[in-house]
Amino acid sequence: MRFDDRVDAGRRLAGRLEDLRDADPLVLGLPRGGVPVAFEVAHALGAPLDVILVRKLGVPYHRELGFGAIGEGGIRVISEDIMRMSRVDEDDLAEVQRAEEAELARQAKRFRGGRPRIPLTGRTVIVVDDGIATGASASAACRVARAEGAARVVLAVPVAPPDAAERIGPEVDELICLSTPPLFSAVGEWYRDFSQTTDEEVVALLHRNAGETGGEGGCEGEKGCRARTGPVELPVEDGRVRLPGDLSVPAGAAGIVVFAHGSGSSRFSPRNRAVAEALSGAGLGTLLFDLLTPEEEADRANVFAVGPLARRLTEVTRWLRRHTALPVCYFGASTGAAAALLAAADAAEEHARGEGEDITAVVSRGGRPDLAGADRLAEVTAPTLLVVGGRDETVLDLNRQAAASLRCEHRLAVVPGATHLFEEPGTLDAVADLAREWFTGHLAAPPAPAG
């Protein structure tokens, strides 16, 4: 079977994928040549389209011969047989990988223009290329999709050699291949027109699909993101633990506030949910999630282990940044406030090294920021608001001590007549007002100097 061009191949492939329409699939094209094929599939199914980025690792003296591939998220696939045959050693591998990692980052910026990847969690994902040669790139792409939480991975290609199809088949839930000719030397021989696809064509097709589908997963403008509300599962501990959460991102949101609850509480905390509702009314996104599993909560020592809790908060923040380009803020209560400030200190350190984004602002409600330690508090750069009840005298004193250690912009706000849980009439409303003003003010303004 021969194809006129990639458009023809995509349309024929779409016919074999029609039964996936009701699965609300997400189509991922391998740049560059796979994207025109993927666009036709996405168009036929009415599905959103994104790129899935992988780079072939080519033998140094014969770049066309791939001995492996790398993908987003640190995925690497290596053919030990080709490495041995080509006499590629570990130094060669490291040199080639460094160069391809730089190209991977360039492609991500070029093709998406700063937009985040469309979330794969829980979805049926169709990975599309214009054909398979060694299968390394397709294999890496499917592993990336799986690592990003796809519930089902379908690999769809117009043509592949029989042995490559057999190798990749076990790695996916379904393999759709229109032709597996026994005499196979290159993908291009099965196309009448196999001219090179340019970066500009890839970008144009992604934009065209976004216009057709409403731009799922992409941010509109510098601040806004398409509205998204519902339950999420957050992978931590290298994916070994999945924490339940509730994510809400109103259209046009200026940022997202991540809640870190305190001891004996959860994402269902009525106080945090009341604050989250007020923030949502102000146009802010919110993420409430459980820092611990039910089994972990049974050991009370875990509830007060603010270091591990902070690391989980950092992992969840990284997950969130992969799914949205919006600024991130923290709202911490009780021991969760210490975890939030530790995570903010870690983010500031990474940002200083040029490895990530800082946290935009932090609010603590009846928190124990002192548990973060004076040295770590001094490393926080995010503007921090400490809210304490006027009748919560012990915690108020601890917050005053913590405030003295902060070197960033900060403020201690005392709510008159409030006890630790802000159960008195009007006191929780006062907390919500203070938090809303703090977050919206710092999301709209450039960073203030430390004070």
Features of the shown structure:
451 residues, 18 strands, 8-stranded mixed sheet, elongated, single chain, disordered C terminus, alpha/beta
Q: How far is the N terminus from the C terminus?
A: 70 Å
Write down the overall mean pLDDT. Answer: 87
Main sheet strand line-up:
11-12-14-13-15-16-17-18
Instruction: Tell the overall outline.
Output: elongated
Estimated share of beta-strand residues: 15-25%
Instruction: Give unreliable regions as ranges.
Output: 217-227, 447-451
Number of helices: 15
Largest sheet: 8 strands, mixed
How much helix is in the residues? 25-40%
**Count of DSSP strands:** 18
Category from helices, strands and their pairing = alpha/beta
Radius of gyration: 25 Å
In short:
It contains 15 helices and 18 strands. With 451 residues, it is of the alpha/beta class.
Layout of secondary structure:
Layout: H1 6-16, E1 26-29, H2 34-45, E2 49-51, E3 54-59, E4 62-71, E5 75-78, H3 80-86, H4 90-112, E6 124-128, H5 136-147, E7 152-159, H6 162-168, E8 174-179, H7 199-213, E9 219-220, E10 224-225, E11 228-236, E12 241-249, E13 256-260, H8 270-281, E14 285-289, H9 294-297, H10 300-303, H11 306-323, E15 328-333, H12 335-352, E16 362-365, H13 374-377, E17 384-389, H14 393-405, E18 410-415, H15 427-444
Parallel strand pairs: 1-2, 1-6, 6-7, 7-8, 13-14, 13-15, 15-16, 16-17, 17-18
Antiparallel strand pairs: 3-4, 4-5, 9-10, 11-12, 12-14
Helix pairs in contact: 1-2, 2-7, 8-15, 11-12
